[in-house]
Design a protein that fits this description.
Helix content is 31%, strand content 25%. By secondary structure, the protein is α/β, with parallel strands linked by helices. The strands form 3 sheets. Strands 4, 14, 15, 16, 17, 18, 19, 20 and 21 form a 9-stranded mixed β-sheet that branches. The radius of gyration is 23 Å and the shape is globular. It binds ligand LLP.
Length: 435
C-alpha cells in the first residue's frame, strides 16, 4: 500500500464517501457538518458499528458453551457506549474503581464485571466487593492476600481467578504484549499452584477460575492457541493436586485493521478455542468449563474517528506539515507506539493540490504527530478524519499543555447525540482552585 493511504469503507462499511458530493459520511451523516456543529477535535462513534462488533463475538460462541463477553472498558469508557453494550448483554472487564463506577452509571451489572490489573488498592477492592463485582482477576500472591483481607473485613466472600502468565509471544508491539515472563502481568505457571492452594484454603475466597491475556492488537491467532495449550496443561496439574478450575477467561487482544492488517475475526478464533477446551474436557472426562473473553479494541476501534481541522499548512525546507487542532493529548497512540492511523480529508477540495504532509498537533513536543508522509489534498480550514480512533483514543487523552479534552458524539439510526461535552478551561482549573 502506497503512502499508508486507506479507504475508510475498508475499515468500516458505515464510513462512505458520498459519490455525488465527495463528502465522507459516517452512518449516512456528513462528518463536516458534525465538525461545524460540535467543533473540533471531535470523536465520532457509530452505535451500529459497536453493536455489530459485539454481536460478531456473541454469535461466534452461540450454542457452543456458556460464554460471557466482557467488554474491556479501558478501550473506550464513555458511559453512553457502556450503556449500549450493557443493553446488548455484555459483561465488563474493568481495571479500576473508576471503571466500575462507569459501568454502574451505565446500568451494567457489577456481577458481570471482572476486575483485572496488577495493582488494585485496598479501597478499590473494598468498593468492588461492596458493589458485588463478579470476580477479581488476581495478578500476584500478595494481591490474593489483600483480596482475602478485604473479604474478611467486609464478611463477604470474594470470587477470584488467578491471572497466569503463559510466557508466549503475542507478536505484537512490545508495549502491548503482556504474556511474556518479562512482562509485569500475571503469576508464573510455576507459582500458580501455591497461590491457588492459599485461595482454596481461605474461608473468604472462592476460587472461580483462571485468567490469561497475552497482548493486544494480535493479527495472528496462533499465540492464542499456544497460550490455551499451556493453560490447559496447568489445569491438569492443578486437578492432580485437587484444585478444580471450572472457568477460563481467555482475555482480549484480537486486532483490527488500521491500514492493511488482516486480523482474524472472532468467528475464526472463538469457536476453535472453545472447541479445543471442549475436546480437552471430554478427553479428561470432566464437565465443560464456562468461558469468558475480554475484547476491547475489536469492539470499538473501527467504530470511531477523530475529526480535526487544519489550522495551518507549513513548509520547512521542502518538508510539509499540516498543523491540525488535534494533538497527542487527544490521540496518544502515534506518539506512544508509533501507531499508524489512516487519515483522510472529509471533503473534496477542488482548489487544493495534492501534497505529502506530516500531520502534527499544536503540542510542544516533536513526538506530537498523528500521521507521517500522507498525501492529502487540503487547505487551511479543511477537516480531516483520523480513522480507527474508537479504541484507546479518548481513554488515553490527557490535559497536557492544559488542553481540554475533546467532545464526543454518538451516531445512532440517524440521530446525533453529544455524549461528552468539550472540556472547558474552568473544568481544568477547578480541582486546583477548589482546595
Ligand atoms: N484484558 C486485559 C487483561 C487487558 O489488559 C486488555 C488490554 C484487554 C483485555 C483488552 O485488549 P484488546 O481487546 O483491546 O486488545 N493502549 C494500547 C492497548 C493497551 C491494551 C491494554 N490491555 C493501544 O492503544 O494499542
Amino acid at each position: 500500500m502506497q503512502n499508508n493511504s486507506v479507504n475508510p469503507s475498508d475499515l468500516n462499511p458505515h464510513l462512505q464517501f458520498d459519490t455525488a458530493s465527495g463528502e465522507l459520511q459516517f452512518e449516512s451523516t456528513e462528518l463536516s457538518g458534525l465538525a461545524q456543529e460540535f467543533g473540533t477535535p471531535l470523536y465520532v462513534y457509530s452505535a451500529s458499528s459497536i453493536k455489530a462488533a459485539y454481536r460478531a463475538y456473541a454469535s461466534a460462541c452461540q450454542g457452543l458453551a456458556h460464554v460471557t463477553i466482557c467488554y474491556a472498558v479501558k478501550a473506550n469508557s464513555n458511559i453512553h457506549i457502556l450503556k449500549l453494550l450493557a443493553q446488548e448483554g455484555a459483561g465488563f472487564d474493568i481495571v479500576s474503581a473508576g471503571e466500575l463506577a462507569r459501568v454502574i452509571a451505565a446500568g451494567g451489572a457489577p456481577e458481570k464485571a471482572v476486575f483485572a490489573g496488577v495493582g488494585k488498592s485496598m479501597q478499590e477492592i473494598e468498593y468492588a466487593l461492596g458493589q458485588g463485582v463478579g470476580c477479581f482477576n488476581v495478578e500476584s500472591e500478595a494481591e490474593m492476600e489483600r483480596v482475602a483481607l478485604v473479604a474478611e473485613k467486609l464478611q463477604r466472600k470474594a470470587n477470584v481467578s488467578l491471572r497466569v502468565n503463559p510466557d508466549v509471544d503475542a507478536k505484537t508491539h512490545p508495549y502491548i504484549s503482556t504474556g511474556l515472563k518479562e512482562n509485569k502481568f500475571g503469576v508464573s505457571m510455576n507459582a500458580a499452584k501455591r497461590v491457588y492452594q492459599f485461595a482454596n484454603s481461605h474461608p473468604w475466597l472462592n476460587v472461580h477460575g483462571i485468567d490469561c491475556h497475552i497482548g493486544s492488537q494480535l493479527t495472528d491467532a496462533s499465540p492464542y492457541f499456544d497460550a490455551l495449550d499451556r493453560v490447559l496443561a496447568l489445569l491438569d496439574q492443578l486437578a492432580a493436586d485437587g484444585i478444580e478450575i471450572n472457568h477460563l477467561d481467555l482475555g482480549g487482544g484480537i486486532g483490527i485493521r488500521y491500514l492493511d492488517e488482516t486480523p482474524p475475526t472472532p468467528a475464526e478464533v472463538l469457536p476453535k478455542l472453545i472447541g479445543k477446551v471442549q475436546s480437552w474436557a471430554q478427553a479428561k472426562g470432566r464437565g465443560m468449563p464456562t468461558l469468558s473473553f475480554e475484547p476491547g479494541r475489536s469492539i470499538v476501534g473501527n467504530a470511531g474517528v477523530l475529526l480535526t481541522q487544519v489550522e495551518f499548512l507549513k513548509e520547512n525546507e521542502g518538508k510539509h506539515f499540516a498543523i491540525v487542532d488535534a494533538a497527542m493529548n487527544d490521540l496518544m497512540r502515534p506518539a506512544m507506539y508509533k501507531a499508524l492511523h489512516g487519515v483522510v480529508a472529509v471533503q473534496n477540495n477542488p482548489h487544493a493540490t495534492a501534497q505529502e504532509y506530516d500531520v502534527v498537533g499544536p503540542v510542544c513536543e516533536s513526538g506530537d504527530w498523528l500521521a507521517k508522509n500522507r498525501t492529502l489534498t487540503i487547505e487551511q480550514g479543511d477537516y480531516l478524519a483520523i480513522l480507527s480512533a474508537g479504541a484507546y483514543g479518548q481513554t488515553m487523552a490527557s490535559n497536557y499543555n492544559s488542553r481540554g479534552r475533546a467532545a464526543e458524539v454518538l451516531l445512532e439510526n440517524g440521530k446525533v447525540t453529544l455524549i461528552r461535552r468539550r472540556e472547558t478551561i474552568e473544568d481544568q482549573l477547578r480541582p486546583e482552585l477548589d482546595v
